[in-house]
Structures are given as C-alpha cells and as structure tokens.
C-alpha cells in the first residue's frame, strides 16, 4: 500500500484531512474525509471494512440471519451459537482452499497485473467449496475435517 496522500484544510473551528489511499497494482482508490491523522484513518477504515464483510456474510451473502424473526432469547442464543460455528468452519474451509490450491476449482482467484489475486473472501470460498462437495453426487470432491468439541 502506498502511504496516504494528506491534504489538510483548517478553519478556526474545524479541521479536515482528506486521505487518499491506493494499493499497489490495484484499481481501487479510497478517499477518506476525516478529522484524524491520515495513516490512522486508513488503518481504522481497514478494520471497519473487515467487520462490514463479516456482517454481509452473516446476512445477505451467506446465512440470511436477518430473515429469522424471533422473540425468544433462548432460540436466538442457540441460533447464534450454530451460526458462529458454521461461520468459523466456512472460514477454515476457505483458508484450506487457498492453502491447498483448490481455489482454481471454484474460480476464487484472478490474474490482475500479472499477480494472482483472491477475488472471494475466505467465507465465500469456503461456502463455494462446501456447496461443491455437498452437491457432488459422484463423490469427486470430499470434505476432510476433524471436528472436536
């Protein structure tokens, strides 16, 4: 990542920094208007982006947890436990896909500027691998795991 470009504007009451962050060999540019130091703002925004991805995985992109309407706290606690375990398992499967070169099978990588880049999150890669193994009627793809509580 290139260091952020910092443009400062100050007034008697307000201070505003514009942080422009560009990753090497990437077309994505982040423009962040902030009252914090530019490097700190980029670091904090990266954390927020990871959290937003997790919410997306738990909601519309994966488990559709928002479609569950309940007033029972016991039901919600049990659901949350199951979803947390499943989410962790999908992340582990996604990491295993990346590590063991299964990413080509599910199309999880793409060549950009002569570098192979992962285009799916670990969760999405794990879900795709799980679905491929689950739907495999000829048992061509198998999930290998040990699950101990």
Automatic annotation (TrEMBL):
Gene3D superfamilies with a match to the protein in the record? Transposase Inhibitor Protein From Tn5, Chain A, domain 1
Asked if the keyword Transmembrane belongs to this entry, the reply reads yes
Membrane-spanning regions, if any? 78-95
Keywords from the UniProt entry: Membrane, Transmembrane, Transmembrane helix
Q: Domain of life, per the record?
A: Bacteria
Known InterPro entries for this protein? RNaseH-like_sf
Q: Can you say what this protein is called?
A: Transposase IS4-like domain-containing protein
């Amino acid at each position: 990542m290139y260091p952020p470009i910092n443009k400062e504007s100050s007034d008697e009451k307000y201070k505003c920094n514009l942080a422009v962050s560009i990753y090497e060999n990437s077309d994505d540019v982040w423009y962040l208007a902030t009252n914090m130091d530019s490097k700190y703002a980029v670091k904090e925004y990266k954390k927020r982006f990871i959290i937003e991805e997790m919410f997306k995985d738990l909601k519309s992109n994966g488990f559709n947890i928002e479609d569950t309407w309940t007033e029972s706290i016991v039901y919600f606690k049990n659901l949350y436990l199951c979803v947390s375990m499943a989410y962790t398992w999908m992340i582990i499967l996604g990491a295993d896909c990346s590590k063991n070169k299964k990413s080509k099978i599910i199309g999880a990588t793409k060549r950009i500027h002569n570098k192979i880049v992962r285009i799916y999150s670990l969760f999405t890669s794990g879900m795709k691998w799980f679905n491929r193994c689950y739907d495999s009627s000829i048992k061509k793809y198998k999930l290998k795991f040990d699950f101990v509580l």
